[in-house]
Amino acid sequence: MQQKEKQGDVMRLESVANKLLRKPVGTDALLEGANFDELINPIEPQKDQIDTRKYKLFVSTWNVGGVLPSDDLNLEDWLDVNNNYYDIYVLGFQEIVPLNAKNVLGPERRRILARWNSLVSRTLNRSVSTLKGRKEAKAGERQKVHPVKDGSSDEGSAPDFRCIISKRMVGVVVSVWVRHDLQYHIRHPSVSRIGCGIMGCLGNKGSVSVRFWLHETSFCFVCCHLASGGKEGDELKRNSDAMEILWRTSFPGGHPLRLPQKILDHDRVILLGDLNYRISLPEATTRSLVEQRRWNMLLEKDQLKAEVTNGRVFEDWQEGAIAFCPTYKYYPNSDKYYGCMQGRKGEKRRAPAWCDRILWHGEGMKQKRYDRCESRLSDHRPVRAVFAVDVDVRRSWNSLGSFFLSERYHLPTEQSQIIDG
Asked: Which of 185, 198, 345, 383 is the most exposed place for a label (fewest CB within 10 A)?
């Protein structure tokens, strides 16, 4: 079957190419020196056939606490659209639905993910006339985004973003948005979901991982929700979940494409999510240091940093410097940490912690920003990071090859979008 499909693709390529050059159908003249097999499954290029472009990557994680967003929820500050537009947005959510038995064991509630995607699309693709500091444009006119020398979008262009991946597992969601013109250079998208929750397999905890190629560089993004709990020793459960995710996650690969199958086999890897690591200090001490904004003293007792330093998890991973308040746990619609209000009987104590984190692995990435956003929607604050990423781009070896790899001829050899809902 695969051989027949490949032969069909070759015939299509021959037919289109012959028409372009006004050759009779079936002529062999064009075939001399043209390797159509390489056009369908290009061989790995040599270093002297590669250029490097830089792209701007926005990554964010947000535990939304099972809160259904209103139709008018403003995401502009979170997605930073008033100041910048990025080439790629990778958005990870946790608890997109409440983690009750109905949602863990029952069918997916697709409308909730659809609403979040609608809000993101509306924010990223809003009219250029509302952008602060942008060049003036005619009312209602939408300009096309063109790549510039370093690969990033034209500073004066209107936004035009497409969702290429949006997948969920119970409450964990990862969604990937790219500039419209970049979608023609995205290949081999794939998703892997790992449940680490109840009975060690259900999806109330675990990960949704996505991978794809941009030009000649592979990316993998792992959105996690690890084991909760503030008792001594609970950090070991989180370590176990993380190792289980890294070990069990697998993507399609094998002959003839030889695609990487494991997370760390990819060129650029980013892990984001509610990792749930706490601060190993008495609650009263933690609260006092938070009030004094003594971040360095708190970070010395941060469980994630301690586990990484001691070699128990995330070996060779990197994280940017933390210079923001702990992101958990708040009263909803409030700036007050949970448990700080007097007279509330029966409420569980939750010491503040940096539960929400973004890590990366590999070369070719430089973090430009690592901060939190002040949305009061849930008991967590979203965390976001901006990276400058190097991407290998194949030089066009001839005009025919360039045409078939351009947006004017998008060969549909595989599904280019993976979207739930």
From this structure: 345
